[in-house]
Specification:
Residues 34-82 form a coiled coil. This protein has 82 residues and is an all-alpha fold. Helix content is 83%, strand content 0%.
Length: 82
């Protein structure tokens, strides 16, 4: 599990964002909270970009492996026909 996931599991909220209990007890400064939320949006956007790169790489690898499997299956069939 990643560091963020570990933090959320342990603390029940995102790093850098107050918990619901803290907000209920202490309130929030809207400008400060908006800045924190924008930071989290940027982090999520960068994470999604990275995930999309990984998905693309996996798709390309899968296509290559599918092609290799097809070649091997043809070789097996040709070997059985002899």
């Amino acid at each position: 599990m990643g560091a963020t996931a570990d933090f959320i599991k342990a603390n029940k909220h995102l790093p850098g964002i107050p918990s619901a209990t803290e907000v209920a007890e202490q309130g929030i400064l809207l400008g400060e909270m908006n800045a924190k939320l924008l930071e989290k949006i940027e982090e999520l956007t960068l994470y999604l970009i990275e995930q999309n790169k990984e998905i693309k790489a996996h798709r390309e690898q899968n296509k290559l492996l599918e092609t290799r499997i097809q070649v091997l299956e043809k070789q097996i069939i040709q070997g059985e026909d002899k």
